[in-house]
Amino acid sequence: MITSNQMFYRTPQFQIFSESEREMIYSAALEVLETAGVQIERKSALTLLENAGARIEGNKAYIPSYIVEEAVRNAPRKILIYDRNGNPAMRLESTHYYFGTGSDTPHFLDSYNNEIRRTVHKDIGNVAKLVDALPNLDFLMSLGLIWDEKVSMTDLYQFQEMLFNTTKPIVFTAHDLKGTKDIIKMASIAAGSEDELKKHPFIINYIEPTSPLVETKEPIDKLLYCAEQGIPSLYTPTISAGSTAPATLAGTIIQALAECLSGVTMAQLNKKGAPVLIGGVISAMDMHSGSFIYGGPDFHLMCAGMNEMSSYLGLPVYGTAGCTDSKAIDEQAAIEGVFSINLQALSGGNLIHDVGYIASGLIGSLDMVTMCDEIIAMTKRIMRGIEVDKEHLAVETIRRVGPKGSFIADKHTMRHFKDQQWYPELMDRKNYDKWAAAGKKSCGQRINEKVKRILKEHKPEPLEKSKQDEIMKLINSEAKTRKVRY
Amino acid sequence: MSLLEDLKDAVIEMEDEKTPELTQKALDEGNTPEAILKKALVPAMDFVGDQFEKGKRYVPEMVLSAQAMKAAMKLLRPLLAESGIEPKGIVVIGTVEGDLHDIGQNLVAMMLEGAGFEVYNSGTETTADEFVKAIKEHNANIVGLSALITTTMTHMPEVIERIEDAGLRDKVKVIIGGAPVDQDYSDEIKADGYASDAGSAVKLANKLIEG
Ligand code: B12
């Protein structure tokens, strides 16, 4: 076959913005930073910006575009994340996509009795174990904020449970700068040393600005510290169109982008090359209930739009998917799960979180995580697209088998059926009789059985005993000194 | 009568530039401040609130109607006070120490205003002492505490304790809200009530001041 000037799509194509639209959006975000300004509640960060050339009025910084653009150039366009053992795990760049859970829900849907109750210590270990076992989840966040430990200690216990029960990378939340430092210490012990952790980071710090356009003290402290230490961080808003941002989708993306870029700028000014991700939960207020939306086409579109903007800027992005407003693992949960996961993969989110959130981020569910694992598997197949080359066009095979022939045992079939077709674990394709004989189980029941089976049988690779002891020693000494509140 | 109808419509139609003018005209025509409140503003907000509950009105429309009502109240409030008519209730509301989530509590504050309460919004990260100070300063009879995080809601009992220490517990009703909070927690910390959203917060406040 002699051909010229061919072009192949390796994956299905999806695009929201044209090149000129991206340029307009970026330019608008720069204009927001320069003319609306950002409220910065930490003096040291104001000074950083002032020294770089920003105009400061009170606690507001008006940041000229050249400073922001330089920061964007200095920020790494790819961040390599390792697992607990120091093996490469995620390449956060361009359109590589990875999925993981969300953090900190106050309540949990108990997989054993289907009741909603407060999140407890034991849940976090279970989240880690489950994520460790599920092949399509690449990283984890706690999925819950626990009630049965001293409030001041919850961040450390949550991190410890994650660290002990999976080797997968962890995105963590900490109460404050002290918590961030302690967690980095715990991770250093697991990695072998602080140096080893910096060389092969397997943790990412989750930090949020407050929309609209406010940077409060704790997030700034965490961001600047992680920048110094070379620990990757996210600086991403949870933003609500119509409430903390304009009602228009474009306006909300622009404001979210401006908020992210103010973080990128502070981080780069503090330490050139500091690894930071942009992105976030780019959503809207439901004007009937006031709820913060975690499922719906407008929300999915904005997150996808944000992904496109990040690849335009060459910055790794934190996406959102696998979550729902539904209070149960039902049809709504599945519908919102599918749309969000699909659009995130199509639009090239890198580190895609919140898998397992139900009830608008207020309840965590292991069943939701497990259902999404299968949705991600299906999405991955879609993302592989359709190969178009001589072997896959299969004209010779069609000719060889010919009219009225059978492909079933053909060698071409043997070569390809496993790889071309996708095989479900939870979707049911049996005939009716077989399905009935197996107990007429709904998909939800099969999901729930899988959760329980994994929790019962899966044995994550343990962290060495000596490291576990050292980490527990650190936690116990913190437990003695951290201020108790009720 | 038609002037009061116009004022009622203006509140329903979210016309906050019109309501002060119409209120002034109604006063000039000889309507008492109390009549204006009871015959125009309250029925307007009742109507709007009912529509909201039924899903026929949206949050921004509720907020704008409340602002239209507030603009009218600005004129009426001093006159009502002169004739010895106290506001229905005085509310101090804020998020507790360490909590930056103010979207929900701002909604509650606006809805309470729309329902005729005088509301002082002390914003985010309000310490126990600041709550006590605001209660004294505004002579509040309701205090609303908002917390969205499991780790900040533990400041709620602290606020209640400080209110007790200041000898104010008999004078104010404490209402609480926010995502991790529930009725059990309200009972546990001996608050006077919990509400899961802004509409229910208004009902709760109404119930508490009626005794
Ligand atoms: C938006 C948001 C933010 C924004 C807040 C911006 C702002 N200006 O408010 C930002 C990005 C700043 C933020 C930060 C954080 N957040 Co946040 N956030 C949310 C989110 C997504 C939506 C909240 C919201 O606005 N809801 C919409 C409003 C209208 O609803 P509402 O607040 O519940 O209010 C209604 C009722 O509760 C009630 N009500 C509220 N207050 C009151 C008061 C009274 C008196 C009464 C009667 C009723 C009442 O009426 C309201 C109106 O209907 C929630 C998830 C969720 N679905 O709630 C997480 C959430 C609350 N955040 C959470 C967390 C953990 C954090 C952080 C700690 C994250 C971190 N590790 O850095 C920080 C903490 C910052 C701080 N110090 O406070 C957790 C809390 C978990 C827990 N176990 O408690 C949640 C649940 C998300 C999650 N699952 O992780 N967050």
CA-based gyration radius of chain B: 18 Å
Overall mean pLDDT of chain B stands at: 93
Termini separation of chain A (Å)? 76 Å
Q: Which series of helices and strands of chain B comes N to C? A: HHHHEHEHEHEHEH
Mean model confidence by pLDDT of chain A: 96
Bound molecules: cobalamin
The amount of beta strand of chain B, in percent, is: 5-15%
Task: Give the N-to-C terminal Cα separation of chain B.
Answer: 33 Å
Supply the helix-strand structural class of chain A: alpha/beta
The CATH fourth-level homologous superfamily of the largest domain in chain B: Cobalamin-binding domain
Query: What is the topology, as strand order, of the major beta sheet of chain B?
Result: 2-1-3-4-5
Written account of the structure:
- The complex is a heterodimer of chains A (486) and B (211).
- Chain A is of the alpha/beta class.
- Chain A is built from 18 helices and 19 strands.
- Chain A has a seven-stranded parallel beta sheet with strand order 6-17-16-14-12-10-9.
- In chain A, helix 5 packs parallel to helix 6.
- By secondary structure, chain B is of the alpha/beta class.
- Chain B folds into two domains: 3-82, Methyltransferase, Methionine Synthase (B12-binding Domains), Chain A, domain 1 (Orthogonal Bundle); 90-210, 3-Layer(aba) Sandwich (Rossmann fold), CATH 3.40.50.
- In chain B, 57% of the residues lie in helices and 10% in strands.
- Chain B has a five-stranded parallel beta sheet, with helices on both faces.
- In chain B, strand 1, helix 5 and strand 2 (118-121) form a beta-alpha-beta unit.
- Bound molecules: cobalamin.
- Cobalamin (B12) sits between chains B (93, 98-105, 107-108, 144-146, 148-150, 175-180, 195-198, 201) and A (103-106, 145, 173, 206, 208, 210-211, 237-238, 240, 244, 290-292, 360-362).
- Cobalamin sits between chains B (93, 98-105, 107-108, 144-146, 148-150, 175-180, 195-198, 201) and A (103-106, 145, 173, 206, 208, 210-211, 237-238, 240, 244, 290-292, 360-362).
